[in-house]
Amino acid sequence: MTDFKHISVAETAERLAKQQVVIADIRDEQSFATAHIEGAYHLTSTSLSVFMQQHDFDAAVVVVCYHGNSSQGAAQYLVQQGFDEVYSMDGGMAAWQLTLPVMSSTDE
To answer: What is the pLDDT of residues 27-83, one digit of tens each?
Structure first.
């Protein structure tokens, strides 16, 4: 069985700019609403089935959490569900927000 891979904030931003990845943000609803990566999908236990219907299993998925820890378990779960290319973003949103812009739900 294939495992997920790690990806840096910089590489995530680069691949996102080229529309080569889907961002799956697993943080709680309030944190997601306050700040998230533009275009990120809020992935929860209730939205998982919709996510799996909307995204091809060969799509590259980057899982994002607060600091890059919880995303590892979620990334491995997505691999087990059949996604081929899954990453856990090292440093999570804490690292992203240090250098890159975020959106809030009021911006969308």
So the answer is: 999 999 999 999 999 999 999 999 999 999 999 999 999 999 999 999 999 999 999
**Distance of alpha carbon 94 from alpha carbon 76, whole angstroms:** 21
Kindly report the length of the chain. 108
How many Cβ atoms are within 10 Å of 22's Cβ, its own excluded?
21
SS3 readout for 2-38: CCCEEECHHHHHHHHHCCCCEEEECCCHHHHHHCECC
Instruction: Answer yes or no: 67 catalytic.
Output: no
Q: Which residue is catalytic, options 16, 43, 65, 95? A: 65
The span from the CA of 97 to the CA of 14, in Å, is: 15
Three-state SS at 45: coil
